[in-house]
Automatic annotation (TrEMBL):
Transmembrane segments: 43-65, 77-101, 121-139, 151-173, 185-204
Keywords on record: Membrane, Transmembrane, Transmembrane helix
Entry keyword Transmembrane helix: yes
Topology term for the membrane: Multi-pass membrane protein
Gene Ontology cellular component annotations, sorted alphabetically: membrane
Protein name per its UniProtKB record: PQ loop repeat protein
Main location: membrane
Location of the protein in the cell: Membrane
Length: 224
């Protein structure tokens, strides 16, 4: 916690939300949104395809869980780390895209939405990924097992509370420090770091085992 506090405080002013360098006071008018990029139709289409594809890649997992009613093939700790990853990614995305979202009021939805495709993807992915841990606990066959059921069940409320606190800081920062505040940018930077660390922790064992065994049959092609 001390390290996290130091990381946040030293990050003040290190990261700037798009548009805040031009408007450091955080006061925007209709003429202040020149920083919103104009994406080409091709870029927008590619973004939509990626967004839809990544969401569809998760559906087979849910179908398998519901059909077999057995989640023993999943790692609860992977899912818990993924939960934290998704929450911090959402928090980071909401802060870093706040000015783009704000721009929709002035320049119109049709002009701001192409830039927000990645933000929309993050939101949708979070809604798709976050329930996985609940499905795991619901369908785990041996509910007397401590390591793979009871321990994750104990950890889940803690993770949820931490997640609520993380997400709660986003509107709090927006109202108190503003979209362009140094503290807001510091939190965005830290949330991004946490999300990146979670991804490394999530995938490192799988990458290591795949490399060691020289076998990739345990990887899910759809997710890749």
């Amino acid at each position: 916690m001390i390290f996290l506090f130091l990381l946040i405080t030293t990050s003040f002013g290190f990261f700037k939300v798009p548009g805040c360098e031009e408007n450091p006071d955080g006061e925007f008018s209709e003429s202040d949104f020149d920083f919103v990029p104009d994406l080409s139709t091709l870029s927008f289409t590619i973004g939509l395809v990626i967004m839809i594809g990544t969401i569809l890649s998760v559906i087979p997992q849910y179908v398998k869980l519901i059909r077999t009613r057995d989640s023993s093939g999943l790692s609860p700790f992977y899912l818990l780390i993924q939960f934290i990853n998704q929450v911090t990614t959402v928090a980071n995305a909401c802060i870093t895209n706040a000015t783009y979202i704000h721009s929709c009021v002035y320049i119109g939805f049709s002009q701001c939405f192409p830039v927000l495709v990645s933000w929309t993807q993050i939101m949708l992915l979070a809604m798709v990924y976050l329930p996985q841990i609940f499905f795991y606990l619901l369908f785990y066959p041996n509910k007397k097992e401590f390591i793979l059921f009871k321990l994750p069940l104990i950890c889940l409320p803690i993770v949820i509370i931490i997640s609520i606190i993380c997400l709660g800081t986003v509107p709090l920062l927006e109202f108190t420090d503003g979209e362009c505040g140094d503290i807001t940018g510091g939190f965005a930077f830290v949330y991004g770091i946490i999300a990146a660390v979670c991804v490394i922790i999530q995938w490192s064992p799988q990458i290591y085992m795949t490399f060691r065994r020289k076998v990739c049959k345990f990887l899910n092609f759809n997710i890749i």
